[in-house]
Amino acid sequence: MSVFEAIMLLCFGAAWPFSIARSIKSKSTQGKSLLFLLVLILGYLAGIINKLLNDNDVVLYLYILNLCMVSLDACLWIRNKRRETRAKSPS
C-alpha cells in the first residue's frame, strides 16, 4: 500500500462533503463546472482500474469513496442546473 497515495486521496476526499453540502444548500451551479467534475470522475475511474489490474490494496476503497462523492456532486450539479433553467424560463 502506498501511504502517500492514501494521504493524497484522503486530502482530496476531505473537500467533497463540503462541496456536496454547498450544492445541496445553495441549489446553484455557480462556482462549479460539470466538465471539471467529469474529469475528476474519469481520473478516479482510472485509479480504480489501475488498482484492480496492478496493485489491488485498501487504497482502492478510497478511490471508490471519492468517486462516489464526486459523482454525487455531479448529479447535484445537473439537478441544480435544471432548477436554474426552469426558474429562468417564462411560465
Supply database-style keywords.
91 residues, mainly alpha, 3 helices, 81% helix, elongated
In terms of topology, how is this protein built?
Elements lengths: L2 H24 L7 H20 L5 H30 L3
Helix pairs in contact: 1-3, 2-3
How is this structure best described in words?
The protein has 91 residues and is mostly helical. Helices cover 81% and strands 0% of the residues. It is built from three helices and no strands. The longest helix is centred in the C-terminal third of the chain and has 30 residues. The relative contact order is 0.18. The mean pLDDT is 95.
Short description:
The protein has 91 residues and is mainly α.
Radius of gyration: 16 Å
Shape: elongated
Label the structural class.
Answer: mainly alpha
Low-confidence region ranges? none
Helix content: over 70%
Determine the number of helices (DSSP H or I, runs of at least 4 residues): 3
Count every beta strand, where a strand is a DSSP E run of 2 or more residues. 0
Distance from first to last alpha carbon: 56 Å
Main beta sheet strand tally, sense and closure: none
Beta-strand content: under 5%
Run of helices and strands = HHH
Mean pLDDT: 95
